[in-house]
Structure formats: C-alpha cells, structure tokens
Amino acid sequence: MHILFLTHYFPPEVNAPASRTYEHAVRWVRAGHRVTVITCNPNCPTGILFPGYKNRLRPQRELIDGIEVIRVWTYLAPNAGTVRRIINYLSYMLSSVLAGLWVESPDIIVATSPQFFCGWAGVILSRLQRRPFVLEIRDIWPESIETVGAIRFRPILRFLQFLERVMYRAADHIVAVGEGYRRKILEKVNIPERISVVMNGVDLERFCPQPVDSELRRRWNGEGKFVCAYVGTIGMAHGLDVVLEAAEKLRDSGRDDVVFWLVGEGARKEELEHEARRRGLDGRVIFTGRLPKEEMPRVIASADACLVHLRKTELFETVIPSKIFEMMAMGKPIIMGVRGEALRIVEEAGAGVAMEPESAESLLACIEKLRAGNFFPADYPQRVREYLQQNYSRDALAEKMLNVICESAGMAKCAQDSRGTRLESPCFTRASQ
Length: 433
Known about the structure:
Rossmann fold, 2 domains, six-stranded parallel beta sheet, 14 strands
C-alpha cells in the first residue's frame, strides 16, 4: 500500500507531531508499505531554516529511513504572530496540494493537525486524486487559538468553525489522539462510527533509564541541586511564567538548592528569557535552546523531576502531551500541571505528582515532596515500563493506526483470534508478496 502523508512538521524538527508521524511512518515502511511524506523545510519554531536546507519553490526530495520525504516551499514565520503564521499555514496548504498531484498512485491520503490547513490540504488533494482520506486530529482548531488569545475577532472564528465542521465531514475517517479530542469532535459533528482513537505512545527502545550525565548538570548549574526540567515547546499554551514565579519565591526565601531547566524553543522563549534576566534569575532558570531529538534521553535522565504544564483552561484538559510517555519510560517522576485525561494516565501509572496549573506555590510543594525522597518505590522504573508496554507501546499504536488506514483504503485490517494472538493481515503482507 502507498500512503501519502501530509504533515507541517517532520524531523529534524523536534516536537510531538514530527515525532509521532516519523515513528509511525518508519514502522509502516518496515512492514512493507510505501510512505511518502509531504512537509515543510525544517524551520520550526524559530522560522529560521535548519542548516543544510533551502526553501525553494521546486520541491526537494530526500529519503529518511525508507520514508520518501518531499519538502515544499512555505512562507517562513516563527511560531509567534497570528498573521504571519496563518500565511505560513496557507502557503503549506497550497504547496502540498500542488506537490501531491505529482505523487505516483497513492492508495490513501492522510493529513495530520496541527495545523488546521494541513487537514484542508488533505481534503482538497483527496478530492482531486479521488482517493480515500484519513484525518488525524492532534489539536482542536480554532478553539485552541481562541483559548490562547491568538485570534479574538468573532467573525473570523465563526468562519474557521464552519471550515472545521466541513473538514470533519469530508474525511472518510478521523483519528483522534485521545478520548477528550473524540468527545470534542462529536460535539461538532455526529459521526461516531467514523472516529477512532489512537493515543500517543513511546519508543521503549529509545527511551529507557540511563545514568545521570554529570557534565551536563555542571554545565547547566545543576550540580548538588534539585533539577526540575521542562522539555518541549515554550509556547503560548504552556504557561511557563509559573517557573519564573517559583524560582523568584525560592530566591526571596534565600534558597539556592533548586534549578529549573527550560529545554526547547517557542513563541515565548525570548520573552521569558528576558523576564528571567530582569528578575535576576540567572543561574536559577536555565534556557538551553533547541536540542536534537537524540539528546532528549540524556537531558531527561539528568533531571531529578520533569515538569509537564499547560495553562489552566477546560480545553487543555483534553490534551495528552506525548512527552509524559517518554519521561515515564525513563523512570523520571513527573510534576503534572495538566488536568484531565493526561493526569489520569500519570496517576494510573503511579508516575508523578499533581500540581495546580499556574500555581507557583503548588509547583514548589511538589518539588519538596519529591526532594524528601522515598516517594516512589525502588521498582518504580520497571513497573512503569511494564505499564507502558501494555498500553502505550509505539509499535502497537502504529499498527492500530495502520489498521484504520488499511480499512479506510478498502483493505482487511488485522484481527485477533480468541486467544488474543495477532493474525497475519494483508495490510502487513501485501507489499512483500
């Protein structure tokens, strides 16, 4: 089967949608299928091209672990500023549709959000190519941009809501990354039979417990201190002012035994970095900048606890940050500043402590709880990895999504016999026959 996959984000970019798309696609290729990805030249979140890439009008091709990657021209913009970002999104929609028309004989078209107009590129291309279309929803637009205040003009929001409903109805099938997302979609379009849930997960071979990197802790002022690391996008939705407030409270109380690492880039990084300097928090809050995905296990291993945080809104209770699975796989306790389904998963696994989102006092209370020690049993890493293997293995989730794609393309999906043994599926064997 030939899968044509549209995604705004793809490695070497380091973010959740890029990782999920790559990790699924590489497994589908290993199963004998052909996967073509149409994406941007890597520039997220700064809007600056990664070294070695050029933003040309003519699409550029490369092969990444068997995945055929077509990189198209887009209007480059940082992950900040509403107008420039929308132009960036629309330029990708146009370029990906034009490039997709030249892709040889896809059996099915898949498009993933974020961003919203990537989904619309899939709708348009599926109509022009007369191919079935699967839409993956990782972000509820336009609610999410309204929540963070990116767009406030009601007529534009109502128009985007109309486009959202049309897009959902145009898909042959929708894949949501959590039950909360599924419920949100059903509030807008009543098509329960056409919506499946395929959660985020983790590559348990890549993310596993490893020793602390003492040199890294020295470099980032963590030697002899409790290190609380936030790893990921530093964006409008993440509410990381709480870290600065917590660091300021520690300083005002005369304490210098806790350091916060903010590892990543995003729309608010420069603003928060400037504010940290203004408040005199140098050495207490460390901004590392963007690091390659390959460095993430070393960073997580070197922290004492990992912070996962979103702003305190009802919409974000539907979000399940994929980073929680990576942190759990490495045996690191999580300070969970996200409510809803994500918190339920962490608590079910016994993998962390809950804080009140946007509360510096609550964050510091969680740190003190973890600093006291003996909060987690000695077998915590092994027990949590067993939980992940049973519920959130990337291998099993990639197969589950492939089954949805196969069924939408008119192929038989994988089945199980009464003992739960996976039967051989045409979906996995067709290409090798």
